[in-house]
Amino acid sequence: MKKIRLGVNIDHVATVRNARGEKYPSPLRAATLAEKCGADSITIHLREDRRHINDTDLSLIISKLKIPLNLEIAATREMLKIALRHRPPFVCIVPEKRKEITTEGGLKLNFNKSFLKNIIFKLKKKKIRVSLFVEPSLTDIKKAKLLNADCIEIHTGKFCNLINSNSNFNNELNRINKAVILANKIGLEVHAGHGLTYKSAKILSRIKGIKEFNIGHFLVGESIFVGLPSCINKFKKIVK
Ligand code: PXP
After folding, report:
1. Which of 43, 90, 159 to mutate to test the pocket of ligand 1 (most atoms within 8 A of CB)?
2. Are strands 151-155 and 189-193 parallel, antiparallel or unpaired?
3. pLDDT tens per residue, range 134-181
4. Which of 12, 35, 45, 153 is catalytic?
5. Helices (DSSP H) in 108-227: which residue ranges?
6. How far is Cα 19 from Cα 84, in angstroms, rounded to an integer?
7. Among 48, 53, 41, 49, residue whose Cα is nearest residue 14
8. Please, what is the Cα angle at 25 between 155 and 132, to 5 degrees?
9. Residue 45 is a catalytic residue
10. Which residues on adjacent β-strands are paired with residue 8?
11. Are 148 and 121 in contact (CB under 8 A)?
12. Ramachandran sector of residue 148 (left: φ over 0; alpha: ψ -120 to 50; beta: rest)
């Protein structure tokens, strides 16, 4: 039986498409192929500036996909409206800064606490599974529980950077491990993502209690060389 579900993030298929303003490569085609290859869910991040995935991609993908769509959104009124209109089975709330290249850290859970709580309430009322993208911080995990999230997704960016630069990652791994234990103890489902590669996914897959990985940039990049089916297959072997 599979230990960790594999969520395939296809944002960067859209990045390549948008680089030339063409209709290809198609994120929908990538999503349906990933589904065929055994992805457990598809993740897309509809950014406020629509720099990769756009509203049409969201409509098309959600109408064709059989596996769950995990929609990443910033905590804004606009994004809440979109999520409630499309009702994806999963939503992950992420921090967003216009000028960042990628999501730089976890959510600041003190900021606008009641607004966040209200968003979570409205999504859950529509039976949407809500996850919060957080740092592996015990304080933030307790706050996520108080906000009534169903899951947390641990930001693995720092851990992956340490691995990529051949630095000592033991402290960060330990921090993630403690975060996973606490989250499971208080009844939050644990996901992990950001910057994951074959190597970092393999190390993290040894931590008990992580239920889902969401992997995008490396997976799309590696697929240029080995193809999406082969790359997904390799990740599936890692997480099984
Ligand atoms: N999980 C979340 C919440 C994210 O925001 C991202 C990046 O969009 C990812 C996972 C995937 O990160 P990467 O593209 O580095 O694999």
Report:
1. 43
2. parallel
3. 999 999 999 999 999 999 999 999 999 999 999 999 999 999 999 999
4. 45
5. 113-125, 138-146, 157-164, 170-185, 198-204, 217-226
6. 30
7. 53
8. 20
9. yes
10. 42, 215
11. yes
12. left
Rounded CA separation 69/32 (Å): 11
Model confidence, pTM: 0.95
Beta-carbon contacts of 44 under 8 Å, excluding residues fewer than 6 positions away, are 9, 10, 11, 27, 31, 53, 57, 58, 61, 69, 70, 71, 72
Token match 């929609």: residue?
71
In short, whether 94's Cβ falls inside 6 Å of ligand 1 is: yes
Residues 1-35 have pLDDT tens digits of 448 999 999 999 999 999 999 999 999 999 999 99
Is the shortest distance between the CB of 215 and ligand 1 below 6 Å?
A: yes
Pocket flag, ligand 1, residue 220 (CB < 6 Å): no
Instruction: Copy the structure tokens of residue 133.
Output: 């993208």
Domains with residue ranges and CATH for the chain: 5-239 (3.20.20.70)
